[in-house]
Amino acid sequence: MEIPLALLESLHGVQGFNESGFLQAHHYVPPVSIRFNMGKVSHADEFIKTSGMPVRQPVPWCPSGYYLSERPKFTLDPSFHCGAYYVQEASSMFLHHLVNELTGGEKDLSVLDLCAAPGGKTTLLSSLPQVRLVVANEIIRTRVSILYENLVKWGDPKIMISNSDPAQCRQLGGYFDMMLVDAPCSGSGLFRKDPEAISEWSVDNVKHCAERQKRILADALPALKEGGLLIYSTCSYSREENEDMMDWLMQLAGLQSLEVAVPESWGIVRTLSASGAVGYRFFPGRVEGEGFFTAAFRLLDHHASGDVAEQKPVLMSKYEISLLDGWVNDRSSIVYLKAENDVYIMPESIFGDYIRLRKMLNIRKAGIHAGSMAHGKFIPEHELAQSILLSPKAPYLEVNRDQALGYLRKQLFETDLDNKGWFVLTYKGLSLGLIKHLGNRINNYYPSAWRILMS
Fold it and tell me: Which residues contact 18 (CB under 8 A, 6 or more apart)?
């Protein structure tokens, strides 16, 4: 792997950079890591034993993260499609430690993940007990589909998906308690995972990315409330996108750099910018992970204001809600909405956010699309089948691995079902999706766009 000479020259003098170790690390296969969905896998140790997952050791800065000894064929693991875990690069899981150290004693935090696709950091943020709402925003329309798929599989109803330009956030006027800007960058930290990124890297592209990062931050910061937490991160090694960006942020009125305790054994480099702001660098060879950079700031002074409009959606009647008996868990804390024949459910705790935010942002998903009403009957939808709001009283059908893979390929399979109707297909107790038994055949309702093609 030929690392660009211009990149190496630019890193001389950067805190923690060792050229020989850096080059040597790029000759090794990058480690593989996953993060368990604790909303679906409450006991990771038990899952590891029964699944045969080649777990090697925990990721030290994220309790639900684990390194694997080899890379399995995730596509052929039904548990992956059930949302039991997310395949995430270990360095980026440091977000768990950073946010937990800075907000561990707080409650009911609203979070904006500004550049969210494909959804790794969104799902991590939603798993933190102090977080009440995560708005996962993705400006690039073509990337919203993979974000949607990953978040549906994750199944957390407190996540909304937005497809909005950061400039639209100006209207929100200090709405969010926390903002994550995992900024589009030159991608040098991903050279081991994506060798094609090497051919795309250039000094000019680094400068272009730095200017774009400034525009994104300037547009979005008004949405952060006074006292709110800003997390900035990149997968770049370049000073222009990291330390220089911290200095640029410190020039903005009211931002205070924050730091957390990091054990020396983790190998993470604490770095200081010219203005004294603190950041954290991850170099392959020093840490077991890819190139990553992150920094945290507190917004002490906020002058922006916004009038977030409200437009109440249509709520379902008690009779309509009764048709969902046996399908939705913990009904007392759920709000039921309808749009024509479609049924949507969400936690009561984020309903107020939804009715305010949907006029300011292009909300593509909020809560769970539970199903639809037709001829006085409730028809369940795939989102509900994969949601943690699905009731344990719903009709379930457990299948083996071969049957599960056949289902994921949109194939038909035989069962000895006696009862007709809808069933949630499960694999090792985890929900895969829906089937309908018609008596003479079984219809497969797994989303066609998500079907697996690998044999």
Answer: 283, 285, 286
pTM for the model: 0.95
Mean pLDDT of 102-116: 96
Q: What is the mean pLDDT of residues 341-348?
A: 96
Residues listed for the chain: 455
> 113 exposed, middle or buried (CB, 10 Å; 0-12, 13-18, 19+)?
buried
In sequence order, which residues have a C-beta less than 8 Å from that of residue 41 and are 6 or more positions away?
47, 84, 85
Rg value, the chain, Cα: 23
Given a contact cutoff of 8 angstroms between Cβ atoms, the answer to whether 242 and 236 are in contact is yes
235 is catalytic: yes
Set out the domains of the chain in order of their start, with CATH numbers: 93-299 (3.40.50.150), 311-391 (3.10.450.720), 395-455 (2.30.130.60)
Structure tokens at 187: 């991608």
In whole angstroms, give the CA distance from residue 179 to residue 188.
24
Residue of 62, 82, 185, 235 marked active site: 235
